[in-house]
Amino acid sequence: MTDFPAVHPEPVPVLALGDILLVTLRGDLYDGAAEQLQYDITQRIANSPVPVGGVVIDLSGVEIVDSFLGRILAEIAASARLLATRTILAGMRPAVAITLVELGLTLPGLDTALDIDRALALLGRAPSVVRPATAEEGA
After folding, report:
1. 113-130, pLDDT tens digit by residue?
2. Over 90: is that where the pLDDT of 139 sits?
3. Considering only CA atoms, which of 86, 79, 93, 85 is closest in space to residue 35?
4. Is residue 59 a contact partner of residue 89, using CB atoms and an 8 Å limit?
5. Is the dihedral of CA 12, 42, 31, 78 positive or negative?
């Protein structure tokens, strides 16, 4: 009989961009990692030396969301709201949106944006870099 070592999923990094917390989810997020992420975000908001202006959770690397992850995302938003911080989901794929609707998850307290730039704009932090016009736009 072979014993396999316990698998401990990598924690999801929570990056600070000024007063904004940015979380980028990639691939499958195991239940334990999702619960740890909820704890980490809440602690970062509560213990930040400056008020956190918002939390952006980038889902562009996620292809499947189950009811557990949907519930964790809603709980992150509810906790952040109680700590006077807004949460925005960015980069949701159409298949993920359809799945969330089919699961009946309304995700109260969560705002959505098509990408991180638009999420930052919703938080009043417009991207500082002006994109150069492409040949197609200038023609």
Report:
1. 999 999 999 999 876 555
2. no
3. 79
4. yes
5. negative
Residue 19's pLDDT is 94
Residue 79 identity = S
All structural domains of the chain, each given as residue ranges with its CATH number in brackets, are 12-121 (3.30.750.24)
The C-alpha atoms of residue 5 and residue 61 are separated, in whole angstroms, by 27
State how far the Cα of 24 lies from the Cα of 56, in Å rounded to an integer. 8
Cβ-proximal residues to 28 (8 Å cutoff; 6+ apart), any chain = 64
- Listed in sequence order, the residues at least 6 apart from 111 whose beta carbon sits closer than 8 Å to its beta carbon are 86, 87, 88, 89, 122
Burial class (CB in 10 A: 0-12, 13-18, 19+), 35: middle
Q: What is the pLDDT of residues 9-50, one digit of tens each?
A: 678 899 999 999 999 999 888 888 999 999 999 999 999 999
